Amino acid sequence: MSIKLAPHHWPSRRQFAAGTLASLPFLSSTSLATDVRRTLLLTDPAFALHDPGRFCVERPSRMHAIDVALSGRAFDKLQRAAPNARDDAEQAILQVHAKAHFDRIKALAADTANLPYAIDGDTVLSRHSWGAVVGAVCAGLDAVDALFAGSGIKNAFCQVRPPGHHAEASRAMGFCFFSNVAIAARYARSKYGAERVAVVDFDVHHGNGTQEAFWSDGNSFYGSTHQMPLFPGTGAVSETGVGNIHNAPLRAGDGSSEFRAAMETRILPALDNFRPDIILLSAGFDAHEGDPVAQLRLSDADFA
Ligand SMILES: [Zn+2]
Known about the structure:
By secondary structure, the protein is an alpha/beta fold. It has a single domain, classed as Arginase, Chain A (3-Layer(aba) Sandwich), CATH 3.40.800.20. Helices cover 32% and strands 14% of the residues. The chain has helices at residues 29-35, 61-69, 89-93, 99-110, 129-148, 180-192, 208-214, 256-274, 300-303; strands at residues 2-5, 39-42, 79-81, 117-118, 124-125, 155-158, 197-201, 220-227, 245-250, 278-282. The strands form 2 sheets. The protein has an 8-stranded mixed sheet with strand order 3-2-6-1-10-7-8-9, sandwiched between helices. A two-stranded antiparallel sheet has the order 4-5. Zinc ion is lined by residues 203-205, 284, 286.
């Protein structure tokens, strides 16, 4: 998950302390030198302790792969921090999820005699899952705080797991327990008065949980490219919420040109028109041509 404030050419009705934007951190090495000092990387070894089983593709080695990638010299100047353990995490989660859902996941995670516990074939709680599940939420909240605190941070990258965009108000599914990005979006609104929050989701799967959370909320924008048909089955162009949902499904085999066309003709014009105060990216990289989980063929440059 990556979070940044909207650029200053999208004027907001409120002024925020850190209301301008540096470009995305993961561009060329030349731009990295100037950008990463204002980028906050939030991560913690605890995220690798969540263990859904050795046959699950959403596995701890995802964290190690990113650790290796970000250990290069180009990232020396990243500001790095572990997410705080936050007393307000439950309150933030309950802005998106039903109390019964929160209580169920917490109770299942604490029932050590019955761990690992499979909610479904993909979504498994293990002995150390609860710390990671809540930590992933806290990382998003910390990122929002950093952006609005006037600390000079212009964007943040939350290197977390488990992911969140499939978790619905009362349902864990697709590796996801709580909707990390929707929770961060709601928090930006309630804590800092952000009037318009946008989530752009380029994960190869559609973020049914984020879409559900935003469905009737015209001040929240959701734009997604994803392979379709594919899990979870949602994400048709006809799913528009109150005009705030913008789905741009792609077909198996699509690559750079189709992805860029979807972004440039559908998602980004709608995003520009929405004039968000903050942009959150559901930054799943499983649409990469090297990822066998699906059949989109995006390159590194497409993500940048
Ligand atoms: Zn995915």
